[in-house]
Design a protein that fits this description.
By secondary structure, the protein is of the alpha+beta class. It is built from four helices and six strands, in the order ααβαβαββββ. A six-stranded mixed β-sheet has the order 2-1-6-5-4-3, covered by helices on one side. The protein is globular and about 35 Å long.
Protein backbone atom coordinates (compact mmCIF):
# COMPACT_ATOMS: atom_id res chain seq x y z
CA UNK A 1 0.00 0.00 0.00
CA UNK A 2 1.16 3.51 -0.73
CA UNK A 3 0.50 6.57 1.46
CA UNK A 4 -2.72 7.46 -0.36
CA UNK A 5 -3.98 3.89 0.03
CA UNK A 6 -3.17 3.87 3.74
CA UNK A 7 -4.88 7.21 4.32
CA UNK A 8 -7.94 6.01 2.39
CA UNK A 9 -7.91 2.78 4.41
CA UNK A 10 -7.88 4.76 7.69
CA UNK A 11 -10.87 6.88 6.60
CA UNK A 12 -12.79 3.79 5.45
CA UNK A 13 -11.91 1.91 8.64
CA UNK A 14 -13.38 4.75 10.73
CA UNK A 15 -16.51 4.85 8.52
CA UNK A 16 -16.96 1.06 8.76
CA UNK A 17 -16.78 1.16 12.57
CA UNK A 18 -19.23 4.06 12.71
CA UNK A 19 -21.59 2.04 10.50
CA UNK A 20 -21.01 -1.04 12.69
CA UNK A 21 -20.20 -2.96 9.50
CA UNK A 22 -18.28 -5.92 10.90
CA UNK A 23 -18.07 -7.69 7.52
CA UNK A 24 -16.38 -4.64 5.95
CA UNK A 25 -13.97 -4.35 8.90
CA UNK A 26 -13.01 -8.04 8.79
CA UNK A 27 -12.65 -8.09 4.98
CA UNK A 28 -9.18 -6.56 5.33
CA UNK A 29 -7.81 -9.15 7.77
CA UNK A 30 -5.76 -12.24 6.98
CA UNK A 31 -7.28 -15.48 8.27
CA UNK A 32 -4.46 -15.87 10.82
CA UNK A 33 -4.37 -12.22 11.94
CA UNK A 34 -3.34 -11.40 15.50
CA UNK A 35 -4.80 -8.48 17.45
CA UNK A 36 -3.93 -7.16 20.92
CA UNK A 37 -6.18 -4.86 22.93
CA UNK A 38 -6.89 -3.99 26.55
CA UNK A 39 -10.59 -3.89 25.60
CA UNK A 40 -10.30 -7.48 24.36
CA UNK A 41 -9.09 -8.45 27.83
CA UNK A 42 -12.22 -6.85 29.34
CA UNK A 43 -14.56 -8.58 26.86
CA UNK A 44 -12.93 -11.99 26.40
CA UNK A 45 -10.56 -12.38 29.34
CA UNK A 46 -7.49 -12.25 27.08
CA UNK A 47 -5.82 -9.24 25.47
CA UNK A 48 -4.70 -11.35 22.50
CA UNK A 49 -7.14 -12.41 19.79
CA UNK A 50 -5.83 -14.89 17.21
CA UNK A 51 -7.54 -15.55 13.88
CA UNK A 52 -10.30 -13.90 11.90
CA UNK A 53 -13.07 -16.08 13.39
CA UNK A 54 -11.99 -15.12 16.92
CA UNK A 55 -11.90 -11.45 15.89
CA UNK A 56 -15.48 -11.73 14.62
CA UNK A 57 -16.62 -13.29 17.90
CA UNK A 58 -14.81 -10.66 19.98
CA UNK A 59 -16.01 -7.66 17.99
CA UNK A 60 -19.57 -9.00 17.79
CA UNK A 61 -19.65 -9.22 21.57
CA UNK A 62 -18.04 -5.78 21.99
CA UNK A 63 -20.52 -4.18 19.56
CA UNK A 64 -23.45 -5.72 21.44
CA UNK A 65 -22.15 -4.08 24.62
CA UNK A 66 -21.76 -0.68 22.93
CA UNK A 67 -25.01 1.25 22.74
CA UNK A 68 -23.14 4.39 21.68
CA UNK A 69 -20.10 4.04 19.43
CA UNK A 70 -18.49 6.69 17.27
CA UNK A 71 -14.92 7.17 16.08
CA UNK A 72 -13.44 10.45 14.85
CA UNK A 73 -10.21 10.29 12.86
CA UNK A 74 -7.38 12.51 14.11
CA UNK A 75 -4.58 11.29 11.83
CA UNK A 76 -3.21 8.41 9.81
CA UNK A 77 0.49 7.73 10.42
CA UNK A 78 2.05 5.77 7.57
CA UNK A 79 5.26 3.74 7.44
CA UNK A 80 5.23 2.69 3.80
CA UNK A 81 8.47 0.69 3.94
CA UNK A 82 7.26 -1.51 6.82
CA UNK A 83 3.61 -1.45 5.69
CA UNK A 84 2.48 -0.23 9.10
CA UNK A 85 -0.42 2.15 9.56
CA UNK A 86 -1.24 3.98 12.77
CA UNK A 87 -4.82 5.20 13.02
CA UNK A 88 -5.11 7.90 15.68
CA UNK A 89 -8.71 8.70 16.63
CA UNK A 90 -11.17 9.68 19.34
CA UNK A 91 -13.23 6.68 20.41
CA UNK A 92 -16.59 7.53 21.95
CA UNK A 93 -18.21 4.48 23.54
CA UNK A 94 -21.17 4.32 25.91
CA UNK A 95 -20.98 8.01 26.82
CA UNK A 96 -17.23 8.13 27.41
CA UNK A 97 -14.47 9.21 25.06
CA UNK A 98 -10.75 8.48 24.92
CA UNK A 99 -8.02 9.09 22.41
CA UNK A 100 -6.91 5.87 20.78
CA UNK A 101 -4.24 4.61 18.42
CA UNK A 102 -4.37 1.36 16.51
CA UNK A 103 -1.30 0.08 14.75
CA UNK A 104 -1.85 -2.21 11.80
CA UNK A 105 0.70 -4.20 9.83
CA UNK A 106 -0.15 -5.35 6.32
CA UNK A 107 1.16 -8.14 4.10
CA UNK A 108 -0.22 -8.29 0.57
CA UNK A 109 -2.85 -5.66 1.51
CA UNK A 110 -4.23 -7.81 4.34
CA UNK A 111 -3.88 -6.87 7.99
CA UNK A 112 -1.83 -9.52 9.75
CA UNK A 113 -1.18 -7.76 13.07
CA UNK A 114 -2.84 -5.02 15.04
CA UNK A 115 -2.68 -3.49 18.48
CA UNK A 116 -4.80 -0.84 20.16
CA UNK A 117 -3.71 1.74 22.72
CA UNK A 118 -6.01 4.03 24.71
CA UNK A 119 -5.40 7.23 26.68
CA UNK A 120 -5.33 6.86 30.46
CA UNK A 121 -8.30 9.13 31.04
CA UNK A 122 -11.53 10.15 29.41
CA UNK A 123 -11.61 13.36 27.39
CA UNK A 124 -14.36 15.93 26.97
CA UNK A 125 -16.36 15.45 23.79
CA UNK A 126 -18.42 18.08 22.07
CA UNK A 127 -21.71 16.87 20.76
Amino acid sequence: MNREGMERFAANWIANWNARDLDAILAHFAEDARFISPLAAEVTGSPVIEGKAALRAYWSKALEASSDLHFTLIAAICDIERQILGVHYVARRNGKARRALETMRFVDDRQVEGESFYSAQDIAVRR
